[in-house]
Specification:
Number of strands: 10
Mean pLDDT: 94
Largest sheet: 8 strands, mixed
Order of helices and strands: EHEHHEHEHHEEEEHHEHE
Number of domains: 1
Distance between the termini: 21 Å
CATH superfamily: Acetylglutamate kinase-like
CATH topology: Carbamate kinase
């Protein structure tokens, strides 16, 4: 039974903060009309808070919650530049926006503060938060970042090999990749899958959302939570 019922919410798409602004705007515009809920990463804003935390040693709760606030900031900025989009902070608004044929961009701070379901740690970033929201909505999860997916090592290394599909349990041994290090644990805990692809190419995201799961045509990594 769903905790939150949002009809026709097929996908939650997390747009990485590294794609903001231009690539994030392009991707959001392409997602319009596809029954998706967009969530944004905090990008440079969140990185600045992490830098301050390393110098000033804030409490875990303050660092965690202010980092989530940056997701709201990027979400509002993105919604302002995509005429078909509207920023929302609850799922009832998201349902209304979808019915009006607009793209809901979700601002997670209020909901995450109220539910407080995840650890207060830098291991938890917008990736894990997006997974949690997809889980309670029973929607599929797509994480759009600035690399093609998961590699055997850093993509910039010559010996890096692209991985089409991997179990979350195996990914745990990789540590932090293009995904936060807690995501794999949560995928296993929830028994959930996620898809990871390069958000610089909106056509890849659209192909996947429209049901083309062939990695020959749409380059992505499937991370299985089984």
């Amino acid at each position: 039974m769903k905790l939150f019922v949002v009809d026709n919410m097929e996908w939650v798409v997390k747009i990485g903060g590294s794609l903001f602004p231009e690539k994030a705007i392009n991707l959001a515009q392409a997602l319009w009309g596809n029954d998706t809920l967009v969530i944004c990463g905090g990008g440079r804003f969140a990185n600045q808070i992490r830098d301050y935390d390393e110098k000033l040693n804030f409490s875990d709760t303050t660092a965690h919650e202010t980092a989530i606030m940056t997701m709201d900031i990027v979400g509002r900025l993105l919604a302002d530049k995509v005429k078909e989009a509207e920023a929302v902070d609850n799922f009832y608004q998201a349902k209304k926006i979808l019915k009006e044929n607009k793209l809901p961009i979700f601002l997670p701070y209020h909901l995450m503060h109220y539910l407080d379901p995840l650890a207060h740690s830098w291991k938890i970033t917008s990736d894990s938060i997006s997974l949690y929201l997809a889980y309670i909505l029973e929607a599929k999860l797509l994480i759009a970042t600035d690399v093609d997916g998961i590699y055997t090592t850093k993509p910039s290394f010559k010996d890096a090999k692209f991985i089409n599909e991997i179990s979350a349990k195996k990914l745990l041994s990789f540590g932090e990749t293009s995904l936060d290090s807690a995501l794999s644990e949560l995928l296993v805990q929830f028994g959930y899958n996620c898809h990871v692809l390069n958000g610089k190419y909106p056509e890849r995201a659209l192909s996947l959302i429209k049901g083309n799961y062939s990695t020959k045509d749409t380059k992505y990594t499937l991370v299985r939570g089984d």
